[in-house]
Design brief:
Four copies of one chain form a homotetramer. Chain A has about 250 residues and is α/β, with parallel strands linked by helices. Chain A has one domain: Rossmann fold (3-Layer(aba) Sandwich). Chain A has seven helices and ten strands. The first copy, chain A, has a nine-stranded mixed sheet with strand order 2-1-3-4-9-8-7-5-6. In chain A, α3 crosses α7 and α5 crosses α6. The radius of gyration of chain A is 18 Å and the shape is globular. The two termini of chain A are about 35 Å apart. The mean pLDDT of chain A is about 95. Chains in contact: A-B, A-C, A-D, B-C, B-D, C-D. At the A-D interface, loops of A face loops of D.
Chain lengths: ~250, ~250, ~250, ~250
């Protein structure tokens, strides 16, 4: 992995930007473009980033692109239901075979995240211009490298507990909000051969993906989620009596 | 829970017993009947056990029965695909709301287990009359209470690693086999408000569910998986600015 | 455990009450007495509670008492260094053999907690009359039963991250404070055959242990930490070639 | 870390080699020299490896050397008690501040491992020329990269469960032995800012550290345990009311 850049595909739903003036003003080229620029800005030559959106052919992820993606980032919100079950199947298969997945903000409610978690992924929310403070609870974790504790986000949607997810394999960030709510805002899981990171800051109504610390986390997460080797699936496998023999 | 017995529903696929003479000889009343008798034998008055099978109306689990089940046990093998997606949805919903689920042996490949795990749940196997030794790696866990380490099962199908599951929240048993293979054979997870236990001994070709130690584990698992309170779901919930106010 | 009450020993440092008028006004019989009354109030006949303090003979925990304790609760602050290493050895041994341990507030810095965690157990703090909100992040956990989310504590010392502990085996509560800080305030670990729960609310300068929800958590934790069976140690054990033989 | 090699210090007890002809025949330059050569063989320019032993000045680890060590490996057996408590204090402090630690075989019983785990670290054992098979249960873990599953070690001491350790944060390898025993033989923990890996193969009576797959695991573990940044301790820290202020 040291020699070849990590091939990151930024998947964006790409709908809010087209119909909400406020969102378009923050993200004139789409939220995905800003997410991609953040990853590139902080990961540099370690990554090669492409953007795709839901309205692209094959919903942005034809087989060939998915096969050549090391890490996929996912932001969606109002069109989760439009994502085809076939695509969800293919992304799940890719993750279990080793592809990294970084799920962002309202992506908690996407088909693919719920598929991989097995839980409802429901949470409490309020779009009320809260201040979010993102605290590091695992300071040596690579995803937390280089950011202050707390990261301060002046305006954000509130996401609060109970967040119905499997207990994370690694809990990295916990946020608090103006209303006093808390949220496990940076969570890592290993599923099959793939790594999954969920990072909650990033509502479309606020310019969160322009925040330098948030951008650094995006880059850290993309690098952290990169697979260590080629993809490999785990089939049901018959092991003959002599499959393993001591010479 | 101290006053009312835990309502355990034993779900059996019920197909092998009807067509395989060998299976029927071990389990003349069905594997489910033997599983149920094991739970009752060792949990006594703490449980009230019912049996249902795939070929019963509503595939054995009408809404009213599922609603009045505290812990569901699941054994299936050759008819996983016949289980309706609607039933899988309803069982998942019940587990996330608090119902316990005990998945047995080839149930690792059932729709409901794969749904709740989010992974392939694939493994390595060999039906070659292996001796299985079930070692306790968490001796204070309630599911391991009262059984020797190892439990010795003279004849069993081999299940071996890699077993593609999320890392268990609690690893209780690890088995070895005649061929030298190992397997995480007793695994616990918390999902939503429900508890899930997977216990691998129990192939239909061998009389495993007559083994006293195995029967005690079944009973322990049923009691351990029982919910602490009434079911409760976790919806996406809007939290108004004044939903929580310090007086 | 259903028949015999859980034998809970509440260990209190017992020094602040003797010299600080403010503390004595909240806890005229000692903090330990109030902690004990909370456990009894909410666990009822399930427990039998005794109190001891540092200034009692054998620092409150002679061998016979420790041997007959199912769950020990620990509150200390200004006299951690006075606790003898021999007592720490004996308590650690008891926990690993199955005794439950509930560590409260400034007990995070006690010798016994640091011994069992293996980390510094350091944290950030401010005694500034913060409001603490204690949120449940695992609503089905027995220790969270019956309390609202959040528990609101009007006045408390702030404890904030980074809290240098091993990642909890089960994370139950996360708190926020007036200053926006967050803290993993309810954490469970399994060590050896024993269960350990850390619950952070409870500074001596505020009447926290009179708060009904806090008292319920104390009771829940005491019941949760109770051992399932008699104590058992794990020695280095030689296993002869014929120690386990298939007949 | 990409530019500078990881500074690995191999600490060896160095006693068996001096008095046991059999051990000296396998390890004429000391076990530590063979461990070091394995790390260098498979990690190459990514590491810079030094060897020290118990009988060196300052028991091999003067403050300056410890301060310039990124990853420490530890093999000890018959002289655990000779290691000074002061050295244990210093190594623990270094690990919590970020230094990696790789504990090998009988090092499970060392003062430093017991200190960091908080448990007895006891296990079952038999020196009876067992065949050990080391199975990978987390195939995407960096420490398992490039080794077959199972690794076959023709002759080894048996280490068996119950192994009294905290549940690993990541379980990578599980071994089986000729006698049918199983053992969690590759375990990872995060403590403070440091990473700890325990790998059990490697008894002094067998030439295990000449085994190519074992050597690759040693190298993988050393690279995996390397810190991501400079050391940092976590003190008890007072946070003034105005320490964090939103502008």
């Amino acid at each position: 992995m040291a020699d070849e850049p990590i091939r990151v595909t930024v998947w964006g739903e790409g709908r809010h930007e087209k119909r909400d003036v406020n969102v378009a003003s923050h993200y004139p080229d789409g939220m995905h473009a800003t997410i991609a620029s953040g990853i590139t800005e902080y990961a540099g030559a370690a990554v090669a980033v492409r953007c795709v959106t839901l309205d692209d052919p094959d919903q942005g992820l034809p087989a060939s692109l998915l096969a050549s993606t090391d890490v996929l980032t996912w932001w969606g919100h109002i069109a989760h239901d439009e994502v085809s079950d076939d695509l969800v199947d293919r992304v799940q298969e890719a993750v279990l075979a080793g592809m990294g997945l970084v799920v962002l903000h309202s992506g908690h409610w996407s088909k693919i995240f719920k598929r991989l978690m097995g839980t409802s992924c429901a949470l409490r929310w309020r779009n009320g211009d809260d201040r979010e403070l993102v605290w590091t609870v695992d300071p040596a974790h690579p995803v937390a490298a280089g950011v202050p504790s707390p990261i301060e986000i002046p305006s954000q949607e509130m996401y609060g507990e109970f967040f119905d997810i499997p207990a994370p394999d690694e809990l990295v960030f916990v946020s608090s909000f103006t209303g006093g709510e808390v949220f496990r805002s940076g969570c890592a899981w290993r599923r099959g051969r793939g790594r999954i990171f969920y990072f909650s800051p990033g509502d479309q109504d606020y310019p969160v993906y322009h925040h330098p610390d948030v951008r650094r986390v995006l880059a850290n997460a993309a690098v952290w989620a990169a697979p260590a080797g080629p993809r490999s699936t785990t089939p049901i496998a018959y092991a003959a009596p002599d499959w393993f023999v001591t010479p």
